[in-house]
From TrEMBL:
NCBIfam families: proC (TIGR00112). Residues 4-97 form the Pyrroline-5-carboxylate reductase catalytic N-terminal domain. Pathway: Amino-acid biosynthesis; L-proline biosynthesis; L-proline from L-glutamate 5-semialdehyde: step 1/1. This is Pyrroline-5-carboxylate reductase. One of its GO terms (cellular component) is cytoplasm. One of its GO terms (biological process) is L-proline biosynthetic process. Residues 160-264 form the Pyrroline-5-carboxylate reductase dimerisation domain.
Length: 269
């Protein structure tokens, strides 16, 4: 059982993890947070009752150190804390793009590193966290990461070579879905519906469709075909989606996100 967990870079994702662990029954006394701005640290202290310390103090005290700063800030944070991580402690990176070797090169030889790509639905315990072990991380380290990230949603182990693809699909995925909802709401307005009603209709349709995708055991094609009546309304919309290349646009968009994740690995901020 993990003794003390520190989150360095307690922004959106770091806070989602801290709050999720507390919802899941972790005592705030077992958690540490590190933020860059004092006012951010104060907010976390007040909101969750967690102790806020410097990155280097967090590194010294934690059995498990989770680093959730922006990829562009990762080199600076590692310069700040790498020398303070005692041998054998688990380091978990939540950053897009950055490979486990980046950390292994900077930490004491043999330090286990796990790379995790989660997503913002972790805020409502519906996250999708994709985990990969670095060179010196084994079953116990992956299990410890799953204990933490499993508290805020689902977890899946993948080879690290698939992390950039996972980042593009599930890490960024909620943004594409929010974008679709936003565009569909605009369509409702075009058709004369008030914005609040259009929003309510789309949100419930999204929740219903997502629940069916998860629970029905049916393939998405079958679920779509069940909505698409011969000479009905839906097929007219599907023809327009095909005419406008929406499927091809999604393929290109997600490939572009994967490419950006690869660029972040090579330090191109
Ligand atoms: N947002 C998302 O949907 C997802 C993000 N990620 C990954 O999670 C990471 C964080 O992203 P996100 O939460 O969106 O970003 P945020 O900017 O919200 O959080 C990053 C936090 O790191 C803090 N920080 C920066 N430098 C230091 C330091 N030296 N010591 C302590 N804290 C520091 C920042 O402080 P300050 O606020 O004061 O600048 C900020 O609060 C990224 O690597 C991203 O790739 C992964 C999955 C999804
Ligand atoms: O946009 C980003 O870089 C981060 C990583 C995945 C989701 N948000």
């Amino acid at each position: 059982m993990t003794q003390k967990v520190a989150v360095v870079g307690a922004g959106k994702i770091g806070e989602a993890l801290l709050s999720g662990m507390i919802r899941g029954g972790w005592s705030p006394s077992r958690l540490l947070a590190s933020a860059r701005r004092p006012e951010r640290a104060e907010k976390l202290r007040v909101r969750y009752g967690v102790e806020c310390v410097s990155a280097s103090e967090a590194a010294k005290a934690a059995d498990t150190l989770i680093i959730t700063v922006k990829p562009q800030d990762m080199a600076g944070v590692m310069d700040e804390l790498a020398a303070d991580v005692p041998a054998g402690r688990l380091v978990i990176s939540g950053a897009a793009g950055i490979p486990t070797t980046f950390f292994e090169e900077r930490l004491t030889a043999g330090t286990p590193v796990v790379r995790v790509m989660t997503n913002t639905p972790a805020l409502v315990d519906q996250g999708m966290s994709v985990l990969s072990a670095g060179r010196d991380a084994g079953e116990t380290h992956l299990a410890r990461a799953e204990e933490i990230f499993g508290g805020v949603g689902k977890t899946l182990r993948v080879p690290e070579s698939q992390q950039d693809a996972a980042t593009a699909l599930s890490g960024s995925g909620p943004a594409y879905l929010f974008y679709l909802v936003e565009a569909m709401t605009d369509a409702g307005i075009l058709l004369g519906l008030p914005r609040d009603k259009a929003h309510e209709l789309i949100v419930q349709a999204t929740i219903g469709a997502a629940t069916m995708l998860r629970d029905s055991g049916e393939h998405p094609v079958t679920l779509r075909e069940n909505v698409t009546s011969p000479a009905g309304t839906t097929i007219n919309a599907i023809r327009e989606l095909e005419n406008h290349g929406v499927r091809a646009a999604l393929l290109a968009a997600i490939e572009a996100a994967r490419d950006r994740s690869r660029e972040l690995a090579s330090g191109r901020g």
